[in-house]
Amino acid sequence: MLFSSPTADSSNAPLPDGAPLPPIEVHDLTVAYGRKPVLWDIDLEFNEGELVGVVGPNGAGKSTLIKAMLDLVPSASGWVRIYGEPYAARRKQVGYVPQRESVDWDFPVNARDVVLMGMYGRLGWFRRPSRKDHHTADECLEKVEMSAYGDRQISQLSGGQQQRVFLARALAQDARIYVMDEPFAGVDAATEASIVRVLRDLRAEGKTVVAVHHDLQTVEEYFDSLVLLNLRVVANGPTSEVFTRDNLLATYGGRLTILDRAAEAVRRGGGPRIDRP
Amino acid sequence: MTAILGFLTFDYNTRVVLLGTLSLGAAAGVIGTVALLRRRALLGDALAHATLPGVWIAFLLFGKNFSFLMLGAMATGLLGVATVSALSKYTRIKEDASIGIVLSVFFGAGLMLSGWVHHNSTNASQSGIDSYLLGKTAGMLASDARFICVVGLIVVAAVLLLYKELKLLCFDPEFAAVQGWRVGLLDFALMILLTATTVIGLPAVGVVLMVALLILPGAAARFWSDRLSVLLVLAGVFGLVIAGTGTMVSAAAARLPAGPVIVLCGTVLFAASMLFAPRRGVLARWSRTRSHRRRRVRQRIVQRLFEAFEKDASIALASLSELSQRIRVDRRSFNRAVNRLIRDHWIVVGSGGVGFTDHGWDRALRTVRTIRLWEQYLLTHANIDRDLVDPDVDVIESLLSTAVIHELELGLIESGRLPRDHRNTAIQAPPTASREVPL
């Protein structure tokens, strides 16, 4: 199987029709770097067609949770199931938007090249993207309002535009579940609006989105469900039930300034903006 | 030149040798660029040094058989690379230190073996292996050259075949893993190709300087292109040119080892690219910065002049020395900017000061409006895409929507800062505007 298609193995396992399988299910997941656990006994289940926000302080293990779902970090115990199967069997159902800082943006490719990479998994070994794939890539760029920038070298794009290129690449994966690591981190207002529009379109198509999020002020507006995380799951459920002062206190611990501001934001549904708590 | 011509008219064997070094250069340029983008350049150096013990072990076991020497080099080279990754992965030693350890230990072992073989064997000094240290093309057999040529072609063909996979691996290995690509396998393939290229480079370039032939072509090509496909082709051509020239020069001047000559050729090409490449080159960047700075000075002169008239609409001319005091640039830059504005018929010098021409008024209105709109934008749109803000752009409309601009204009009107036309103070440009600016 040395030269099997990267996604061939068993990732074509058919999805059971109308089965009540959750898109993502996490059971007893523990992840440790060395001897230091970064996630403890995580139990989660997400509903199909929802926008799910993963919220918590720095070092809470948000990115690790995302990476554990995608088999990027080994788990010490527990398991993750995508539509009832291990991730390796469901790769094609999952699109991924990594943190923008995870790559070198001076790399000699243009925006369209990056979007095309979303289709590499489908193409398999040795096959090059066709003209049709290029067309699809342009469509994906259009969805994030970047069609004018397809030929632009990626270092010539602003931070927000780079983020949108990453989102377009995930759209090119044509998945049912999208996993995003801080898609809103450090982006401008136009990009934020564009991303929100894409997320809502995805939800309208019945897709599931799980996104790490930092801005407590916009949490209620953007997400249907929340995971409040700080090494363990503090709360998980519909945003209206979970996004409470007590839960935030439990999640953010002793960080009082932030808590007060967050509580104020919750109370008023607005108020001072809280960036990167 | 005569040396080159002489070389080209050489016998069949020599031409085959040249073919060998040319394909070596092309292969090294191409695979070296991939290694560079995967941030494995330094590993290439450790790899090259780690091949030396393999050469001598192969010599001890099988005598002077070219293929076996190459296989031996490949074996210890790969062992060196494996040691580096094992050290970085399983111990607390970081990669740079692991590379240092492997490079010196393996190279030391190679030198020791070499000394031992020389002491105990009579034919070692005639074997020509000593030249693997610094490279020498003269002693290369036609069969060796053919071997080098074939391996070089295989390396280039493999990169073409794996173009898409290597591109993804270099740009975003994590995303590759999420898609199910075997990142470890791809990295291993890259290492094999890199090792093969290094090994065939030993006779011509040598252990010590092989890394230069891997890195220099790609590093030079990076100044010329932003596209990976173009970059690879260019690096291949550069490698070919470097290796070819180096080989011929070293062959013509019999006592020069090929390695250093090739490195020198590469350095010349790299330095020329770094300095003279359009857009990314140092000189191009420098001249861009300079013209940008000069433009800023002119822009500020226009802005301050406009403000002088805005403050006092009755005056027809503004004092130039007052203007120069309000713009804190050195006198030379100021004079240069004023002269340029006069030459472009934006401003004219009258008795006691300067004023806008009709054309100048049009331009000044637009410039000041753009600057103030951007100022307003920064004030009112806190969470903006800062990369968009560019006061140099004449037409703000090309970047912001009409609705936003309208909103910004309203804000300017409220604070009374929307630039108005005080054309009554405009003076006609005299046909012979003075070029000398009295200050």
Number of strands of chain A: 9
- Number of structural units classed as domains of chain B: 2
Helix content of chain B: 55-70%
Name the helix and strand elements of chain A from N-terminus to C-terminus, one letter apiece: EEEHEEHHHHEHEHEEHHH
| Terminal CA distance of chain B | 58 Å
Low-confidence runs of chain B (pLDDT<50, min 5 residues)? 429-439
Strand content of chain A: 15-25%
Shape of chain A: globular
Biggest sheet of chain A: strands, sense, closure?
A: 6 strands, mixed
| Main sheet strand line-up of chain B | 1-2
Find the CATH topology of the largest domain in chain B.
Answer: ABC transporter involved in vitamin B12 uptake, BtuC
Question: Number of helical segments of chain B?
Answer: 17
Q: Uncertain segments of chain A of ≥5 residues (pLDDT<50)? A: 7-11, 270-277
Features:
heterodimer, A: 277 residues, alpha/beta, six-stranded mixed β-sheet, three-stranded antiparallel β-sheet, 21% strand, B: 439 residues, mainly alpha, ABC transporter involved in vitamin B12 uptake, BtuC, Arc Repressor Mutant, subunit A, 2 domains, 2 strands
